Every structure is written in C-alpha cells, then in structure tokens.
Amino acid sequence: MESSFRHGRLAPYRRPRHVRSTIGDYTSPEPLAALVRAALFLALSSLPAAAEMTLTSPDLSAEAPVPAAHVFDGFGCAGPNLSPALEWSGAPEGTNSDILTVYAPDAPTGSGFWPWSLFNLPAGTTALPQGVGTAADLPEGAGRARNDYSQNACGGTRPPEGDDPHRYVFTIWAMPQESLPVDETASGAGVGFFAHTGALDSASLTATYGRPASALAGLPAAKRKAAPGGYGLCRKSFEGQAYLILPSL
User: Fold this and answer.
1) Among 73, 129, 225, 238, whose CB has the most other CB atoms within 10 angstroms?
2) Where is pLDDT greater, at 145 or 244?
3) Would you say 214 and 247 are in contact if contact means Cβ atoms under 8 Å apart?
C-alpha cells in the first residue's frame, strides 16, 4: 500500500528508516542478522585450533648433519647403523595406525632412495627408541618394509663420496586403517604410496649428511697402496670429523 488511513483520512505512506547496526558499517533493516553473524564469528574464533602433528628427534636436528652413529654399515662405510630415536604427537582423530618413512630425494637413482620404512605402527604409539630399526622389538603388529639396501631394517646414511650433502626426510603418517594390505616384502616406495594417498596428516623432519672426497685421493701411489683397505671414508657433514678414514683401494 502507498498510503494508510489515519484520523479519518488517508495519510501519506512513509518507508521505514534503515537501522544502522553498531557492528562495522553494516546497514540493514534488521540488525538481528548482523548480530547473528557476529555471534557466529566469535563462537568459531573461540574454538580450540586442531592439534598439529609434529615429529622430533633427540638425535637429529632439522636441516643439520646426521651424527656418525647413524652411518650405514656397508657399501664402503662401516658405521654403527643405528636408527635415531623419534618422537611424535598431534595425530588427528580417526588415526588407527602410523607409517614411518625415511626418504633420500638426492640419491642419484632417478627416483630417490628409501633407507627405512615401518608400517602398521599401532595407534597411540608416539615414540621409537634409538636402535630399534635393526631390532625385533618394534611395537607389536608393526612391520618393516624392505629398504633400498635390500634389508628389512633401518639403513643408515651413505651418500656417494664428493656429493653435496644429501637430505634425509623422516616422516610420520597418521593412517585411518589399522593395517595396510602389505607384508615385509613391500618396498619403501610401495609403503610410501599408501602414505601419500591415504594419510590423514603427517609431520616431517629433515637432516643432511655428506661424504667428502677420499682423504687419500691426493697421496702418492706408494702411500695409497700401503694404507689398509676395506672401508670408505664416512665423515660427518661440514665437521671434518672422520668416522673411518681407510678407503678401499
């Protein structure tokens, strides 16, 4: 209607004024809508943030050289080959198992290198002690994939001599299933497929390790021949501290 009846006569119609909300510059004929939006925003902003997965190690530092204790035993090296201690937290709701992978993307294979992979770590597992990678005392139900050294164990660092330091990426993956459809004949890449395609969340820690060119390379031939053989030069990156310094000749 454009008019209304008032005091016995038609009164001109007056459009109701817009009521300006006190929230920002929002103008609405119904400020209730703005109040609802504000209340919803405040309620959502007060919710606790979802826990973020984290992976740490007392033996490793992010983007730092891997200690000599974790050097591989074989292929020209004779390190202790101990797996590092690992700790993680923040697995999301719905996690029923974990996968651990170690991947070396800089290995000169065209597809990287998988030194260590564990699968079916039971839900609630939050740590692995040092040295468990070559032992049988993993959490019950956990499996060890076959690494690229052709072992069902942890394989330590062993990049080619003279390369720039290689990266070793340790990743824990939260999985929705209790077990993967694989056994210990699975490769690290095979376990990695399930991790990359099905994980609810993950966390990573990257460390580096390099092997300088042989310390004997510049010595006279007579001295080189006199040196006992059998081991490669395995040094801690950037520290110049040799673990074993007698390269095979």
Assistant:
1) 73
2) 145
3) yes
User: 122 with 192, same domain?
Assistant: yes
Residue 45 lies in a domain: no
**Which residues in the chain belong to E strands, given as ranges?**
3-6, 9-12, 19-20, 27-28, 54-56, 73-74, 77-78, 86-89, 97-104, 113-122, 127-128, 143-144, 166-175, 201-209, 234-235, 242-244
Residue 193 included in any domain: yes
More reliable by pLDDT, 97 or 221: 97
| Cβ atoms within 10 Å of 170's Cβ, excluding its own | 24
Query: Is 46 inside a domain boundary?
Result: no
Nearest Cα neighbor of 85 from 126, 124, 122 is 126
The enclosing H or E element of 198 equals helix 188-198
**What are φ and ψ of residue 69, in 5° steps?**
-60, -20
Taking the complete model, does pTM exceed 0.70, yes or no? no
Phi and psi at 4, nearest 5°, equal: -135, 155
- CA distance linking residue 68 with residue 114, whole number of Å: 19
Number of domains observed in the structure of the chain: 2
pLDDT at 91 over 90: yes
CA distances to 99, 173, 188, 209 from 203, in Å: 11, 7, 17, 20
Instruction: Note the Cα 137 to chain centre separation in Å.
Output: 23
* Nearest Cα residue to 98 out of 134, 138, 153: 138
CA atoms within 13 A on the CB side of 36: 5
- Residue 128: in which H helix or E strand, if any? strand 127-128
Task: Work out the percent of the chain whose per-residue pLDDT is above 90.
Answer: 44
Contact 120, 180 (CB under 8 A): yes
Are 16 and 26 within 8 A, CB to CB? no
| Residue 186 one-letter amino acid | A
Q: Give the model's pLDDT for residue 189.
A: 97
